[in-house]
Fold each of these.
Amino acid sequence: MVPGENAADLRFQAHRSRMQMRTVRRFSPAAGLLASTPVGVWTSLGPSPLASDATGIGAQDYGWVSGRATAVAIDPADSTGNTVYAGGAYGGVWKSTNAGPLSASPASVTWRALIDDQPTLAVGSIAVQPQAFNPDPARSVVLVGTGETNSSGDSYYGLGILRSIDGGNNWTLISRDASGTRPFAGLGFSRIAFSSSNPDLVVAGWHGFYSSADGINWSRLNNQPGGLSTFLCPASLTSLACPFYRGEIATVPGRNEMYAWYVDNSDEDGGIWKSVDGGNSWQAIDDSGISDCGDLLGGCGTQQGFYDLELAAVPNGAATDLYAGAVNLYKCTLLPGSNTCNSASNTFLNLTHVYGCLPSLGSIAHVHPDQHGIDFAIANGKAIMYFANDGGIYRALDGFTGLSSGSCGTGNQFDSLNQTLGSMTQFVSFSQHPTDGNTLFGGTQDNGSPATSSSQSSRSWLSINSGDGGYTAIDPNNPTVWFTANTNVSIQRCALGIGCHSGDFGDDLVVSSFSVGGDSGAFYTPYILDPQNSGELLVGTCRVWRGSANGAGFSPLSNSFETGGDGICTGGEMNLVRSLAAGGPKDTPGFSNLIYAGTDGLGPLSPTGGHVWVNADTDVGAGDWFDRTGNINPGGYPVSAIVLDAGDQSGKTAYVAIMGFHVSHVWKTTNAGASWTNLNANLPDAPVNALLIDAGVLYAGTDIGVFASPVVTPNWMEVGPTAGSA
């Protein structure tokens, strides 16, 4: 947060600075960089595709996955349902013209990236305008609401609405509303919809149930589903008592039939409701099949309703097929005039059982958890359906007959379309084999820990661990020993390299909260192997711990960076460890004697975080840490990365990265933080997230790309695209 300023606008300014640098580079290619510095184009290494099953025995197989898809929209100008647009959390927009019946095999579906040259790739919603006369997909007007509204820690803000009038070939950015007084930068779009009866009318959704006849003037529905009273839910969004946090609305095309679903700020289900009189009255639909979905390992109900909640109403003759997406995907067929699901249980069917149907989770459908988008088209008497979730895009070529079972041991006819979809995987970290450039693996958001041993010849990867993948490491002295982590303190080990599977890691949980005195850490808790002894791990909670890489003997090397005391870390501290580095001479036991720790922060509105702590003599113990932040981070932004210069055996030469805006983002010390040199120079003003030093060149990974500079005389140049490209 930057007081009085919009972070999205500031990032856009940094993007413009980057584009100006490209122009300069076109006329002066060297631009002061070392001759050996690589500045060519990037080559994708994948994962594209990523095999989801990390068990190795098909026990959790969601088919091919690509990453978190947030939106999907069929082009109504293509009556066959083959032309579809898909959006990723930060994966841009992809288009296929043969995603449906034209491709009986999902492997035949082709995709094309559309907005890689735009200033933001964060997508929250997509809508395609109906064409009243002579519909032609080549002339389709497509709107992309940038900015994801799924409230995750990595949901990125947008810049407005991208508009194309030629089916996605060219785009313009709509940055304000029609009056020009309301900027869109910094917002996200959860839903955009065109009126089918008046294609010139377009409305966007936000929290709350309101109606409008013109998309400009809005009024609160007098009768709210579930009895959301004006007393508990006034127009002010500051009310904390309102049992409404996120809602979804679905209408049946051509009918006065509407459905609503909402959750409160504790993810409690507010119910699914039906109205056939424009919202004047509402009737409850029994959704007990959602709360009691039959999955023994979790995933029932709306336990993540803040993040995954979706609703679609598909006309099935005179009946309605109502689809509800949460962690699982559910279906309820409502006969004409009925408010009760036409099923044996009179409630919703669980179509996916993502954490059920043991011993093979999700085997009824092979669809990834966490649903974010649904769209459909009725073509030739079939319901062609597309689904967006944390794994990517899936389809059903006929939802009427192919999606009809909620019982394990049967099968619903879903197809994964991710085998040919470009990678939208969100990496938290990755590690490289010390001598084999082909072997890589990393941790990713909700797509486990992908790995490859053929990165130079194939973009296809496999999963070696499941869940949310965090930080990773490969033992440089024994490179078949790999470490992964999920959320909080959960470091696991496997000694089989590329042959590892989730069961192997699960059998060797080397560091848990119990190992580190009951501490909780960040959502992704950082750790590193000690460079002086790879048999030791350094782990950061709100303090630094060290112990054997086999999980034994962990002890705190520091007190809490939040309080200065030795109390247990709750995971809610401002100054949780964000970055770690170690080196220098060995201490008495033979470990790194010099350790750096960077902490998290929230910026100037709460400038108590964002510190650099240094212990230059670990033999002394927890009391020998010094705050070496000095004046390098007055805004209190996160210290995102610390790297040591391998050319200085003392470990005192280090580089630090700082996030935020209106700050110098890269600093150097040659005396373990006693003083600092500003290396920011001409680096665009955007958060820096990662650093790497190699052969006298410093690389910085930022929110707008990767840049490189000589360490002697800072002069930054973008690594990758040439002038005029994306």
Note: The chain has a mean pLDDT of 92.
Amino acid sequence: MPLLKLAAKEKQIDDALRSFAEKVFASEVKDEGGRHEISPFDVDEICPISHHEMQAHIFHLEATSTSIKDRRKKRYHGRKTINLSIPQSETSSTKLSHINEYISSTPTYQTVPDFQRVQITGDYASGVTVEDFEMVCKGLYRALCIRERYMQKSFQRFPKTPSKYLRHMEGEAWVANESFYPVFTPPMKKGEDPFRTDDLPENLGYHLKMKDGIVYVYPNEAAASKDEPKPLPYLNMDTFLDDMNFLLALIAQGPVKTYTHRRLKFLSSKFQVHEMLNEMDELKELKNNPHRDFYNCRKVDTHIHAAACMNQKHLLRFIKKSYHIDADRVVHSTKEKNLTLKELFAKLKMHPYDLTVDSLDVHAGRQTFQRFDKFNDKYNPVGASELRDLYLKTDNYIDGEYFATIIKEVGADLVEAKYQHAEPRLSIYGRSPDEWSKLSSWFVRNRIYCPNMTWMIQVPRIYDVFRSKNFLPHFGKMLENVFMPVFEATINPQAHPDLSVFLKHITGFDSVDDESKHSGHMFSSKSPKPEEWTMEKNPSYTYYAYYMYANIAVLNSLRKEQGMNTFLFRPHCGEAGALTHLMTAFMTADNISHGLNLKKSPVLQYLFFLAQIPIAMSPLSNNSLFLEYAKNPFLDFLQKGLMISLSTDDPMQFHFTKEPLMEEYAIAAQVFKLSTCDMCEVARNSVLQCGISHEEKARFLGNNYLEDGPIGNDIRKTNVAQIRMAYRYETWCYELNLIAEGLKSGD
């Protein structure tokens, strides 16, 4: 008997321990799950709270109806009319599931082999009521229309396929209009001087005046005195704010979040099934493709800063080489005296011979995670701002000669690699009006030209720094310093020959800085005008983006009239900070860099997918600053079909090899287990995203690259399987067709 009691007691203790252990394990599992960066809308289908809320929502809809019976009939009718079959092509009655039928007349390399498709049949079911579905579709339709309007106004890119669907929804015929396309400088012909000035246009005699932060162009001074500007696309702030407020409301609406979250889940799952069914067929296509493989398909580093475009070993070797050759050359000036290179290093109490990549200390690491201030300090070799000024600046005692030489060496490496291109960013700060002339003179004087490089201008959002030091009276002056010289060179190129030549090599503007810094200012109709912004506080991200976009739109229209190249707006966006950054970029930017925060908003992520807005992602950069590599949404975005490319950001801080872009691809391929087709698809995206000329893109991607889907892909040049292209195109059309069906059922 005592033995039985003891056994029972031990059993109770074991049960208690087991129960406690299970709770601890459950807690650990819960914490582990919480550590992963997932959408806040990932909830179980049987979540009682969401189930209760949906029931209450449906009850409210039915209670407000005049007739519950009619409402139920409408819901039933809606379910029956929206059938989730493969949508119809806009140009043919042929189903997209038989895409090879309507391109059968094309060359053999463009045909799509038979492959297994994932098809959903049956009645409509999307997790929201039919009434909500109709409301969601109207919202998504209007959002796409907003994006299309702002892209066309500024001569930036909006894909043909969603444009066709939008016209179809409006009951209009779609007409191709190439007048909205951006203009890029064509490649230099053999023997042509990239710095020639004998072909610059004559003075137009226009008059310029900045008003409320936007440059207005007048035919002459008389028109300026009467305030009668030329008919250019000047942005209306009230319209912009109305569109912005609509998008703000859209991304916060529950039914829209539910619908887009489910569609994104479907896209991810659908790709995984497609991959499981067709991976070997895609590989077979690539194996049968002669000559071309991942190594010799073109790829572009779509996001790289010129001041860090070299790796740390390259910089170290250059410092040692310059000391060996120029030890007695005067290279630096202080208040007391001018210093030779030897004296400068003596002042810093070091000798170049003793330097290593470790003592150079330009590589980002654990110490820079979530510390953008420490990351910026990494631009100072050995922690010395004097060396940054000497080796990584364009405006210094030796007129940026060392920096120009380093960039030329990086360019030579790209030419040697042949199939890699880069788009380095050079800085214009807006601190003084002569920055443009100094930068362009440096560019032309050092003859910085590389056929594998195109250039961009980055504008750091550091008005608060300049204002606190009294360099600027107000924000309007910063905008004037950034944009007025470019307008002047556009109107009278012969008076600004260096700047006019330099602008031919520029493809876009970038807006850069630490996005996690919150300004505390909400952009609205009550916001101070730029000339009234005299406080030391920095304007918000949206405030910067609005005025940059507004000036670029006017500038592009003016330059296109004169047959000059235009500029794209390609800001850093979504690396950190508020979702409003991504919403603003959706309205104003041709493409963005980073985009990590899209994973926090299913609505914006789905809109970026529908509009195929390119995103230059830099997982190695994010790994050292904001997000661990394994948690990067790169693979998730790729599977869903967002248009992403890989970029290096800052090779000096994040990479080790002579080919940092290949290093970026190699690490992504290993961590995310990418196939050859995946990597070639990302490489193709990078060429589409970048600012190289139409002629070069046609040479690298095929003559039909402007067309969407498999008909626009030349596998002989891109090494992307036609099966993959057909899958992407059909899936894209499927989602757009759902919106069209939702609008149709609403009518």
Note: Residues 592 and 615 are 5 Å apart (CA to CA).
